[in-house]
Design goal:
Length: about 60
């Protein structure tokens, strides 16, 4: 059975994968406005990941 902790870990992994994908998209785009928006979203997601990181391991 899936515990809430398992769900949180999966969600955190999904957010980190999204940060990576958005980073690649920001690197590829030539549109400075789109790049700025992508970088802002990456920044928000990274902050969310930091807040969501469990303090205890295991």
């Amino acid at each position: 059975m899936n515990s809430p902790k398992d769900f949180g870990v999966r969600r955190l992994e999904q957010m980190r994968a999204q940060v990576k994908e958005l980073g690649h998209a920001a690197d590829r785009t030539l549109d400075p406005e789109l790049r700025r928006r992508l970088e802002a979203k990456i920044h928000r997601l990274r902050e969310q990941c930091e807040r969501s990181t469990p303090t205890e391991t295991g």
